[in-house]
Design goal:
This protein folds into three domains: 95 residues, Helicase, Ruva Protein, domain 3 (Orthogonal Bundle), CATH 1.10.8.60; 175 residues, Rossmann fold (3-Layer(aba) Sandwich); 97 residues, Winged helix-like DNA-binding domain superfamily/Winged helix DNA-binding domain (Arc Repressor Mutant, subunit A, Orthogonal Bundle). Helix content is 52%, strand content 12%. It contains 17 helices and eight strands. The strands form two sheets. A five-stranded parallel β-sheet has the order 2-3-4-1-5, with helices on both faces. The protein has a three-stranded antiparallel β-sheet with strand order 6-8-7. The protein is globular and about 65 Å long. The protein binds a DNA duplex through helix 4, helix 5, helix 16, strand 7 and strand 8.
DNA sequence: AGTCCACAGGAAGGGCAGGCGA
DNA sequence: TCGCCTGCCCTTCCTGTGGACT
């Protein structure tokens, strides 16, 4: 861009009437004043948690349902309403919210308890202390706080998958240790089968009450999108059919409203950047691809070198069958390591890394038996053909492969 | 019916970085 | 500073297993 060009670009940008009235309405952190189609759940949740306001113990609670069905939103909605009552009436009640998926924050027992202690005002080192000691500090801060504490464990299934159910067992027993304070647990999970595989003693104490969030149907999804779009965009910014298409995309993802809202926002941004008159249907497709790409590229860039090398092997192996076997991946991975001077990990470890990529949704695997020729896993990348070259390019840059 | 392949995945333990108390 | 502790990443060793082959 020329020298004067940049100034006039910014001036143009300000002058031009954008689509957005309020972009924030379409971000994940936005909390709407009212949550559509969740009245029943809100009421149930409020009923269960209300005793906390009278300093009585409430039941531990387990909330489950697919991604983007409003679980976290509903919990935040109810607790923030409670919080304003708490502040007004000076009720001894605190809310600790933790997303257990947060790497290096709450994905191990140690880190989780240390995070709680930090939220109660006691900073602990990231490693080095015995776990007992971390618990002791946590109990101590709880006792000293003289309050009831509601602990919200979002994506609790991720934590249990990684660390086992001991953490939950310990947390459900905290009340036996405390005199001045009490805790109530609220677990949220995207995995609807999570409870079935949980240790029975933990299961009974965590899920004293259960709340299921059913996926939104197509019509509900459209209403949700419309109500957000009204606040987010100027009138007539959206072509007809756009909301319906976003809803249809999301319905394909098991009624994930978060995804639909994100889709709408990105489509708006793309249209705005292209100086279009309105958001047309074509932008939804483009937004869909952009979102998919961004998610994948972000994950790829944040992986350690060994993980990147494994993924590069998987992406490079794509044969005419669309999937590859563990052994082929491992062999290619070994060659790659040699090429770039990386010490190769064992097959056992690589097998776990493949499992971790599956968790991240980058690949999918299926354990199969080839009879006489052994058992193995079929690994296929969940990256579209159009995204794949860019993903490989990023890995080549990260790994410095010529 | 029995064998055997090529892994999956559990268990145990080593090495490392980092914190604590003496 | 030193010895001892931790969590985490990784290796080593091991058992389990679905189904083609004999």
């Amino acid at each position: 861009m020329e020298k004067g060009g940049l100034t006039s670009f910014f001036e143009d940008f300000i002058e031009r009437e954008g689509f957005f009235l309020d972009r924030n309405v379409l971000t994940t952190s936005f909390s709407p004043e009212s949550i559509l189609f969740r009245d029943k759940e809100i009421e149930q949740l409020a009923n269960i948690l209300a005793p906390l306001l009278k300093n009585e113990r409430s039941s531990n609670l387990f909330i489950y349902g697919n991604t983007g069905t409003g679980k976290t939103l509903t919990v935040r909605h109810v607790t923030s309403n409670m919080e304003s009552v708490v502040v007004q009436r000076q009720i001894p009640l605190k809310f600790l919210y933790v997303n257990c998926k947060m790497k290096r924050v709450a994905d191990t027992e140690y880190r989780l308890i240390a995070t709680f202690a930090a939220l109660l005002g006691r900073q602990l080192p990231s490693t080095g202390l015995p776990t007992d000691e971390v618990y002791r500090v946590f109990y101590e801060s709880l006792e000293n706080s003289h309050t009831h504490v509601l602990i919200v464990l979002d994506e609790v299934d991720q934590l249990i998958k990684k660390t086992g159910s001991d953490v939950l067992y310990n947390l459900t027993r905290v009340n036996e240790e405390l005199k001045n304070s009490k805790i109530t647990l609220l677990g949220i999970s995207n995995d609807t089968t999570f409870l079935d595989n949980l240790d029975p003693r933990v299961k009974s104490s965590l899920s004293e009450e259960n709340l299921f969030f059913a996926p939104y149907n197509a019509l509900q999804m459209q209403s949700i999108l419309r109500s957000r779009a009204e606040k987010a965009f100027r009138e007539s910014a959206i072509d007809s059919g756009v909301v319906e298409k976003c809803a249809a995309f999301a319905a394909r993802e098991h009624g994930d409203a978060r995804k639909a809202i994100e889709l709408l926002r990105v489509a708006g941004e793309l249209a705005e950047r292209n100086k279009s008159k309105s958001i047309s249907l074509a932008y939804i497709d483009e937004a869909q691809e952009k979102l998919e790409n961004e998610k994948i590229f972000e994950v790829i860039k944040n992986q350690p070198k060994q993980f990147q090398c494994v993924l590069y092997a998987i992406l490079s192996l794509k044969s005419n069958t669309d999937f590859s076997y563990t052994s082929d991946i491992y062999n290619l991975y070994n060659k790659l390591c040699f090429k770039i001077g990386l010490r190769p990990l064992t097959q056992r470890r690589v097998s776990d890394i493949i499992g971790e990529f599956e968790q991240l949704g980058i690949i999918s695997t299926k354990t199969i038996s080839k009879g006489r020729y052994g058992r193995t896993r079929e690994v296929s990348a969940r990256i579209s053909n159009s995204t794949r070259p860019m993903a490989k390019k990023i890995l080549e840059e990260e790994l410095e492969i010529q």
